[in-house]
Amino acid sequence: MPLPNPASESSSQPPRLHKKKIAEHLPVTATSSALFRFGEQCNYRCPMCSNTGERELFFRDTDELLRRAAFLRDCGFRRAVVTGGEATIHPGFWTVVEQLAAYGMKWDINTHGRSFAAPGFAARAVDSGLERAIVSLHSFDPPTSAAIFGVSEDSHRGTVQGVVALLEAGVDVMLNCVISRLNVDQLDAYIEAAVESFGERVRVKLVFPSTIGKGGQWSEIANLRYDDVRGRIRTARDTAARLGVRISFESFPSCVLDDASTVNYGRSTFGESHYLDDATGDRVYSMRHIEAELSAYGEQCLQCAALRNCPGVSHRYATANGVAELHAFAAREPADAVAAG
Ligand code: SF4
After folding, report:
1. Between 39 and which of 59, 99, 209, 241 could a Cys-Cys bridge form, CB atoms 3.0 to 4.6 Å apart?
2. From ligand 1's centre to the CA of 19, what distance in Å?
3. Are 157 and 113 in contact (CB under 8 A)?
4. What domain range includes position 256?
């Protein structure tokens, strides 16, 4: 039950913001996984792209990626999450992932999925240690999907075929649907099409857009507010429950979802415990530390029963829009806590 919001934003004073403090260093254990970026190069042109667009981060040659793979192995990692840009188009993709496999490491991938539509691609990836894939797919309506990917409708169809191939190869697939003004009215249809196209094995993640990358000013996400989408998101959650589709959310505060138990499915929740420094490739940081540094909470959050699991909002969102949309959940009474076990 949300409490009244104690933070008045009727004055011109900016809201007081808070953040969680998470240590920068996190020991590497047998279950740790590092985000391993192959460079920002990509053959899709998503106008909302969250990559930096910095020239020096665009491409790493294969020798440098192999050096980074060896560094991760030497740190003790047994798993990596491969990402880009689009890692599958890197000319050294197979060389590097097969080196990870030779080190005895498993890997997951963030991808637009189209490369996996090629015959044998998904099976070879599985043979090289691929276990899970988060595949970007923002609409099942070809014109809308093509507009959000910034490519042709054929490329959209390639992504859909790539998901089919990944599932057939036994990969655990989660669709990554970033919300924008172009697709927010299609979310129910999206859930229905996901189960129709891929069956109930596929999972869906709905993501509130990040505006910190090079695509942050795209008109279809710029100034998008939680209040603009919360009704659609909750309806999509109900539709997923009705159809038996497993659904997660990323970058949605618990009070926007009106569910204090929701766990934000950000990078750390996916299991990415560490981030390999993109620029230098010779240092890892705690992913939870990075996520905490980029997030913000309002005064009302300090009394909120959902605070522990809640991602809050991005610091950029809070400074641009304030935090008046956030409403604390009432703390449980001790008796309730006992009853809940
Ligand atoms: S911690 Fe803040 S953002 Fe999260 S549910 Fe509570 S009031 Fe909302």
Report:
1. 59
2. 12
3. no
4. 34-297
